[in-house]
Design brief:
This protein is of the alpha+beta class. Helix content is about 25%, strand content about 25%. The strands form nine sheets. The protein has a nine-stranded parallel β-sheet with strand order 24-23-22-18-13-12-11-26-25. The protein has a six-stranded antiparallel β-sheet with strand order 27-28-29-34-31-32. It has a five-stranded antiparallel β-sheet with strand order 1-10-7-6-4. The radius of gyration is 25 Å and the shape is globular. The structure holds alpha-D-glucopyranose. Alpha-D-glucopyranose binds next to loops. The site of alpha-D-glucopyranose has 9 residues, from loops.
Length: about 675
Amino acid sequence: MIKKYIFGQPLETGAVTQTIAACSQPLDLMQLSHTEEGVRLSCQMEPLDAVYGLGEQVRGINKRGFSYVSYATDDPFHTESRHALYSAHNFLILSRTSGDSFGIFIDDPGIVVFDVGETQMERLVIQAGKDCVIYTVEGNSLKDIVKQFRELVGRSYIAPKWAFGYQQSRWGYACAEDIRKVVQGYHGKNIPLDAVYMDIDYMEQFKDFTVDAEKFPDFADFVEEMRVQGIHLVPIIDAGVKIEEGYSVYEEGVQGDYFCKGEDETDFTGAVWPGRSHFPDVLNAGARAWFGGKYRVLIEQGIDGFWNDMNEPAIFYSEKNLKKVMDEIHSLKDQNLGLHEFYHMKGLVDGLSNSEEDYKSFYHNMDGVKIRHDRVHNLYGYHMTKAASEAFDQIAPDQRILLFSRSSYIGMHRYGGIWTGDNASWWSHLLLSIQQMPSLNMCGILYTGSDIGGFGGDATEDLLMRWLEFGIFTPLMRNHAAAGTREQEIYQFGHTEDFRNIIRIRYGLLPYLYSEFMKCALNNEMYFRPLAFDYPADTHAAQVEDQLMVGGSIMIAPVYRQNATGRYVYLPQDMLMVRMKSLEDRTCKVMEQGHHYVDIALNEVVIFVKKNHMLPVAVLDEDVKNISGVVAGRYEWIGFAEDAAEYVLYEDDGVSKKYTPQENWKKIVMTREELGMAVC
Ligand code: GLC
């Protein structure tokens, strides 16, 4: 049951797609009060109550013990002490040990603070603004609450099937030749690959929708050359548009009045990669249609995937602030700077980027209404991505185009996926990425993954290998790294055969992973779930923070610690452990419910199959190069049956939007003997 409460005069964010009438009774699931900042909700938490959700955030699956702020922020230091990352996902569930659990969604695009027992261990306090819509969701299980919420906010974005293949990225592939080398690196070692990303270096001086003709002569031909080799190219698009006379996107934006405005009604200027830039007012329908239409120039050259970046929006500095800071620093010249003066000066420079003051200094024209940016800050990335998606519906209505964003808000999940931004090559970030997945799924974001191997810092070979062993389960499986870090394409390391085996396991599992993804998207369910969601009565399961249910048939328990050769695994029921050294080299063992220590060598992938469940595994040719080598129907089955196991297999063409025909769905039942004969 969903109840809707309206406070003040909220803006329409578009997060919710269902129409429901506002509740006439006062909100009673939490205590409500009105503070100077706005609406405040609070309630008591019992010691073992858990809080799930909040999408892309720091810390564990159970969010208790910290506070989280929804304020999209370009901050690459995803440490435990941070309160905000790039997105704002204001949905959580309070899972109660006594009394009914409930979900709550705060539809407020400004700052929202979730104090989940940080100030007072036993209290959950949510502080929203004055103008917001709050939805409460009651249901008969955690899964049911999520499903109702997901129905409320609409179906998740579905990526083309090729985007479930393995993908390579790096900030620093500067020209066509660099990309050719990457493809040769993979093909030379017989490792499958479906896409290579084009980071900001492909553009002319970081100008959106341009391609540097010196680095990429005959771009369309190059896209075609890659396509013939089975490689999709995925260019980045940034939010900021370079100010430069003669640059058509800038000129059209000025003429059409499509950019955000400063207080004085002139186009707001902030700096990003290209230096001084304007920001398309994507909250305005006209500007959105204009900006979205710009993607066409790349689509017409054969591109069928994009990643939208810097759309919190990140602002290195505004002209106004820069001048103030420069003047102040200048006045300190030749002075003896002691503790306070020095740190003040340092703070001045650090404070230039993504400053609240700047976010308060520009405006949107939300279809006739002038709105100061900070009030709707969290909607920017969402609407940039919506702009692209709406344009794709015009340009190629029947085709799925890959699209994901860095910043998002609930609602954007209908238009694209996200990646989790600039993590680091740290073991703790591998764990963070495991823990973020179910929270993101709760909020509707299914097509997602982290930068495998870590973005900042140097990836070590063992970290990359373990990360890939988890990454083979994330819908977006992309290895990406920052400029200046150690090269982390997998052919750069010594144990190529092991890496190759891991990537081949991904392709082998794809019939299952894709089928599960599609079923979850079409049925508004979670693809990654904490154990507590599937085994609500099991108090041990509720404690597990580093294992996940993936789809309906399996559980995973990734290794995420340096030098570990195994780990403790909790089995909430009897399961079949399937150990894979390669796709073909598999061994199985039935294991009983309970705690186990499981050896997992650096080059092994282990999955746990639930009783009476099974999954298809593709049979691959030795030289499979990309997803086209995963042939429908060419499967073996892994399963664990007392008598028989069954599976609903979803298959489609992977490119069109025809999701519903009956022939896409097949129920398959196999007996214990049939399964035993097939594999174990
Ligand atoms: C941002 C993105 C990162 C990208 C870089 C350069 O930091 O998050 O993925 O590589 O910008 O474009």
